[in-house]
C-alpha cells in the first residue's frame, strides 16, 4: 500500500516535471540575489514561457571553462565585454539571433554572439556635503591635493578595477605610469571587490570611490539621498556593458530564443534600471523610469572592443601594479 | 614493557589523517587533470611570496610576544567577570574577516574613533593602511588564540607546584625559569607556527589594509589565477608554494620542539602566592586593560552599527542564518570525528610531527580544494547539489589544525598521567575514550568544537564558487547585501553573524568547562 502510494507520487511528480521544460541560466551571484534583477526576471519570464527558469550562480567564465561541452547552461547572463573574448574562445556559444540595431547603446554594437542587456560607465563617486569642489576632469583629479583619498578595486580580482586601468589607458595611453604615480598618494587603499570599496566610501573612510555613473541612482531612488554624485570628466568615461549569450549545445533552443527576445523586450528593459542599478541596453531614454533621464551621464564614452581590451589588459594591469608597488 | 602497551587504537586516527591527505591530494589531481601548461613565477609572484612570509612572521611574532604578559596576568589574577572576559577576549579570533574589518576600521580607520580623538588633541592622524595595518589586523585576530592557548597552559600547571614554590620561597626570577619558561617553550612554538600558517592564507584583509598591490599575498595571486585569469597551472603552482611554506614551518616547529609534561597533580584549585607586590599587580591590570580595550572596542563598533541596520535585515537573511547554523553543527561533528582519533594517534606517537598533516587543511587554499573537487565531481553529479556538503567538509578541515593544537597536549598529558593506571585496570580502546580521555579533555573538546562552529559560521568558503541561489549561508548573504548597496542591512547581518558565531562558541565552550573535573 505504502509503496504503491509512494510510487504513484513519484510518477506524478516526474510527469509534472517532464511537462515543464527547464531553462538553466548561469548568472553572477549579485544577479540572482534577493536584491538583484534575477527574481523579477525569473517570475515575469516564467509567466510567458510556461517553463521553469533556474538560475545557477558562480563565476561564469571559469565555470564554463571547467565544464566545457558538458555544461548544463542554456543561457549565460552577465558576461562583461572584458571577459567575452575568453568566453568566445570556449566555442560554446551560438549567435544570439537578435537585431543589434534595436540597441540604444552610446556605442555601435555589431557582435552577433553576445547581446548587451545593460550598461554603465566607470566613474568616481563623491559626497557633495563633504566634498565641495569635486574635480571637473580627470586632469583635475590628478592635480588634487594628496589628502583627498580615493578607494579603487584591484584589476586582478575585480571587473570594475579592470575597467579603471583600461579607462586610464584609454585616456592617457603611454603616460599611464605617470598618471598612476600621481594618483598613488591619493589612493587610500585597493580592495578585492567593488562592494568593499563602496562600503569604505559610505562609511566615510574615503572621499571618492571608483564605481559607476549609475551609482547615485540607487541613493536617489531607493534612499531619497541626493548627496552622492558621480564626477563627470570631459576626457570620457570607460563603457561597461553586460551581455547575455546562448549556449550552442542547449537542449532547449526555442526557449533560449524566447529568452533572448525577452531580454530585448520592454518588460525586461524597464526592470533593469531599478533592479540592477544600471542603464537598459534597448530602451529609448524617454521610456526610462521617472528621474533616470536626469542622471548626469558622460558625453564622451571610451570603449575597447574585446580584441583591443585583450591586447592591452595585461600590460595595463602590470603598469598599475608596478607603479603602485613602488 | 609498559612502553609498548597502547591504551588507544591508532587505526581510526591514521584513517582520519589519511582521509585528509587524500582529500587534498584529490583536489590537486583534479586540477592536474586540467592543467595545460605551467609557467614559472614572475617578479610579481616573488614579491607576493616575500610579502606573505614577512607579514606572517611579524604577525605571529607580535601575537605571541604580546600574549605572554596578558595571559600571565589573566592566569594569576582573580577578579569578578574573569571567566567571561577570557571568553570575550577570544571573540576576535572567531570573527568573520569581513565583519572584523568593519570593526577595526571604525576604531583605527581614517575616520575612526582613534583618529577623531587624536585630531581633537591636535596630534597628527595615524594611518592604518600599510604593513602596520596588516599586522595590526592579524594581531587582532590571532592574539586571542595565543592568549587562550597560553592561559590554558598556565591553568594546566598543577596547583601543587605553586604551593611548593611558595613554601620554598622561590622568587619571581626562579619561578619564571622553573615553571613558566618550560611552559612557554612548550606552547609558544606551536602557537607561533599556527598563527604563521593562518596569516599566510589571508588576503582580503592584507590587500585592503595593506593599502594596495604592495600588500599582495600568495592567496590573492591564487584567487586571481583561479577566478580571474583561470590559469590553473599557475594556481596549482602557487598553491604548492603556499603549502610548502606553511608545511615547512609546521614541520620545523613540531620537529624541533620536544613536548614537556608537568606530571600529575591532584586537580586542586590553583592558588598563587607570587606576584602580589603593588608593581606586579599594577602591571598585570594594565596589560589586561590594554588588551581588553584593543580586542573589544572594535566589537562594540560592530554592535552599534549593526543595531542600526538590524531592522532593515530582510527575512531571507534570517533563513540563511538557519542554514549556516546547521552547516556549522554538522561541521563540528565531522571535525570531532576526525580530530579526536587523530589527536589520540598524535599523542601516542613518539614525535608530534604527524600533527603537520592537520595543518594541511589550513595551508591549502579553500579555492583550490573547491575547484579541484568541482572538476572531479562534475562528470558524475551536479556540483551545486554538493555545495553544502563540500562546504561542511572544507570547514571541518580548516578547523582541524586548531582542534589538534588544543586537544593533543591535553590527551597526551592524560595518557602520560593515567595511561599506566588505565592499563593496569584493563581500560583501553573505546572505554579509554569514554571513561578517561573524554572527561579529562572535556574543556578542550568544548573549546575546539566552539571554535570549529564559529569558524564555520563565519567562513564564506567554497559555497561562493558553485552555490545554489536558493541555499545560501549567512556570510554569502551579507556579501550580497554589500554588493547591492545595502550597507546598513549588511551591518545588521554582520551583527547577526557575530552573535551567532560567538553564541555557538560560548555554548560549546561553556559545556566543556561546566562540571569539568576542576581545571
Outline the low-pLDDT stretches of chain A: 1-16
Q: Describe the main β-sheet of chain B briefly.
A: none
Give Rg of chain A in angstroms.
22 Å
Low-confidence stretches of chain B: 258-263
* Overall outline of chain B: globular
pLDDT averaged over residues of chain B = 82
Q: What string, H for helix and E for strand, traces the elements of chain B in order?
A: HHHHHHHHHHHHHHHHHHHHH
Strand content of chain A: 15-25%
Specify the structural class of chain B.
mainly alpha
Distance between the termini of chain A: 77 Å
Category from helices, strands and their pairing of chain A: alpha/beta
For the record, the CATH architecture of the domain at 1-34 and 309-519 in chain B stands as Orthogonal Bundle
**Main sheet of chain A?**
12 strands, mixed
β-strand percent of chain B reads under 5%
CATH class of the domain at 1-34 and 309-519 in chain B: Mainly Alpha
User: What is the radius of gyration of chain B computed over CA atoms, rounded to a whole number of angstroms?
Assistant: 23 Å
For the largest interface, the chains and their residue counts are: A-B, 55 and 57 residues
The total of helices of chain A stands at 13
Number of domains of chain A: 2
SS elements, strand count of chain B: 0
Amino acid at each position: 500500500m505504502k509503496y504503491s502510494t509512494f510510487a504513484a507520487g513519484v510518477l506524478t511528480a516526474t510527469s509534472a516535471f517532464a511537462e515543464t521544460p527547464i531553462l538553466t541560466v548561469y548568472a553572477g551571484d549579485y544577479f540572482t540575489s534577493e536584491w538583484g534583477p534575477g527574481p523579477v526576471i525569473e517570475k515575469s519570464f516564467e509567466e510567458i514561457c510556461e517553463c521553469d527558469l533556474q538560475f545557477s550562480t558562480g563565476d561564469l567564465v571559469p565555470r564554463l571553462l571547467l565544464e566545457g561541452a558538458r555544461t548544463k547552461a542554456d543561457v549565460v547572463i552577465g558576461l562583461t565585454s572584458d571577459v567575452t573574448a575568453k568566453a568566445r574562445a570556449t566555442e560554446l556559444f551560438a549567435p544570439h539571433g537578435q537585431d543589434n540595431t534595436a540597441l540604444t547603446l552610446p556605442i555601435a554594437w555589431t557582435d552577433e554572439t553576445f547581446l548587451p542587456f545593460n550598461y554603465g560607465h566607470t566613474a568616481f563617486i563623491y559626497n557633495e556635503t563633504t566634498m565641495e569642489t569635486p574635480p571637473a576632469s580627470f586632469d583635475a583629479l590628478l592635480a588634487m591635493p594628496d589628502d583627498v583619498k580615493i578607494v579603487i578595486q584591484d584589476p586582478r580580482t575585480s571587473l570594475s578595477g579592470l575597467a579603471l586601468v583600461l579607462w586610464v589607458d584609454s585616456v592617457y595611453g603611454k603616460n599611464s605610469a605617470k598618471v598612476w604615480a600621481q594618483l598613488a598618494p591619493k589612493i587610500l587603499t585597493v580592495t578585492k571587490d567593488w562592494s568593499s570599496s563602496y562600503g569604505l566610501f559610505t562609511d566615510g573612510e574615503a572621499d571618492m570611490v571608483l564605481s559607476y555613473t549609475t551609482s547615485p541612482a540607487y541613493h536617489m531612488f531607493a534612499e531619497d539621498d541626493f548627496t552622492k554624485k558621480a564626477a563627470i570628466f570631459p576626457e570620457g568615461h570607460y563603457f561597461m556593458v553586460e551581455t547575455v549569450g546562448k549556449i550552442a549545445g542547449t537542449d532547449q533552443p526555442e526557449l533560449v530564443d524566447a529568452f533572448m527576445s525577452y531580454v530585448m523586450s520592454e518588460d525586461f528593459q524597464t526592470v533593469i534600471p531599478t533592479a540592477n542599478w544600471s542603464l537598459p541596453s534597448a530602451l529609448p531614454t524617454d521610456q526610462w523610469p521617472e528621474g533616470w533621464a536626469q542622471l548626469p551621464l558622460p558625453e564622451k564614452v571610451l570603449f575597447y572592443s574585446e580584441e583591443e581590451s585583450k591586447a592591452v589588459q595585461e600590460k595595463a594591469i602590470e603598469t598599475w601594479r608596478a607603479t603602485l608597488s613602488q | 614493557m609498559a612502553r609498548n602497551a597502547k591504551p588507544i587504537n591508532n587505526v581510526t586516527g591514521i584513517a582520519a589523517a589519511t582521509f585528509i591527505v587524500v582529500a587534498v591530494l584529490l583536489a590537486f589531481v583534479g586540477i592536474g587533470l586540467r592543467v595545460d601548461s605551467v609557467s614559472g613565477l614572475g617578479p610579481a609572484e616573488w614579491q607576493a611570496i616575500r610579502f606573505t612570509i614577512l607579514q606572517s612572521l611579524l604577525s605571529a611574532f607580535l601575537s605571541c610576544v604580546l600574549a605572554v604578559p596578558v595571559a600571565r596576568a589573566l592566569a594569576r589574577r582573580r577578579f569578578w567577570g574573569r571567566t567571561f572576559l577570557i571568553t570575550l577576549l577570544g571573540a576576535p579570533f572567531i570573527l568573520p574577516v569581513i565583519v572584523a574589518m568593519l570593526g577595526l576600521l571604525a576604531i583605527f580607520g581614517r575616520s575612526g574613533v582613534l583618529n577623531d580623538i587624536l585630531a581633537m588633541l591636535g596630534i597628527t592622524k595615524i594611518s592604518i593602511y600599510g604593513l602596520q595595518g596588516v599586522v595590526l589586523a592579524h594581531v587582532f585576530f590571532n592574539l586571542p588564540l595565543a592568549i587562550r592557548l597560553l592561559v590554558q597552559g598556565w591553568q594546566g600547571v598543577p596547583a601543587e607546584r605553586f604551593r611548593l614554590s611558595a613554601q620554598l620561597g622561590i622568587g619571581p626570577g626562579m619561578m619564571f625559569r622553573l615553571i613558566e619558561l618550560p611552559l612557554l617553550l612548550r606552547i609558544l612554538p606551536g602557537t607561533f607556527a599556527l598563527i604563521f600558517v593562518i596569516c599566510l592564507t589571508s588576503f582580503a584583509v592584507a590587500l585592503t589594509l595593506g593599502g594596495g598591490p604592495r600588500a599582495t599575498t600568495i592567496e590573492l595571486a591564487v584567487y586571481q589565477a583561479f577566478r580571474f585569469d583561470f590559469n590553473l597551472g599557475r594556481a596549482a603552482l602557487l598553491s604548492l608554494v603556499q603549502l610548502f611554506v606553511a608545511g615547512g614551518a609546521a614541520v620545523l616547529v613540531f620537529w624541533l620542539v620536544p613536548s614537556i609534561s608537568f606530571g600529575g597533580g591532584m586537580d586542586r584549585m590553583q592558588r598563587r602566592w607570587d606576584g602580589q607586590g603593588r608593581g606586579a599587580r599594577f602591571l598585570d591590570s594594565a596589560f589586561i586593560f590594554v588588551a581588553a580595550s584593543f580586542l573589544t572596542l572594535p566589537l562594540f563598533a560592530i554592535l552599534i552599527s549593526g543595531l542600526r541596520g538590524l531592522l532593515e535585515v530582510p527575512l531571507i537573511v534570517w533563513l540563511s542564518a538557519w542554514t549556516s547554523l546547521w552547516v556549522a553543527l554538522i561541521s563540528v561533528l565531522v571535525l570531532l570525528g576526525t580530530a579526536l582519533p587523530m589527536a589520540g594517534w598524535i599523542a601516542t606517537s613518539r614525535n608530534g610531527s604527524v600533527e603537520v598533516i592537520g595543518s594541511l587543511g589550513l595551508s591549502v587554499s579553500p579555492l583550490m580544494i573547491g575547484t579541484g573537487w568541482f572538476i572531479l565531481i562534475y562528470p558524475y553529479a551536479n556540483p551545486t547539489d554538493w555545495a553544502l556538503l563540500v562546504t561542511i567538509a572544507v570547514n571541518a578541515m580548516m578547523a582541524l589544525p586548531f582542534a589538534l593544537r588544543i586537544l593533543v597536549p591535553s590527551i597526551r598529558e592524560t595518557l602520560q598521567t593515567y595511561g599506566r593506571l588505565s592499563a593496569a585496570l584493563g581500560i583501553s580502546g573505546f572505554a579509554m575514550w569514554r571513561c578517561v580521555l573524554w572527561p579529562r579533555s572535556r574543556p578542550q573538546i568544548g573549546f575546539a568544537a566552539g571554535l570549529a562552529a564559529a569558524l564555520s559560521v563565519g567562513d564564506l568558503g567554497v559555497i561562493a564558487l558553485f552555490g545554489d541561489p536558493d541555499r545560501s549561508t549567512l556570510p554569502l548573504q551579507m556579501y550580497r547585501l554589500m554588493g547591492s548597496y545595502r550597507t546598513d542591512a549588511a551591518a545588521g547581518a554582520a551583527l547577526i553573524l557575530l552573535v551567532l558565531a560567538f553564541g555557538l562558541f560560548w555554548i560549546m565552550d561553556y559545556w566543556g568547562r561546566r562540571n569539568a573535573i576542576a581545571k
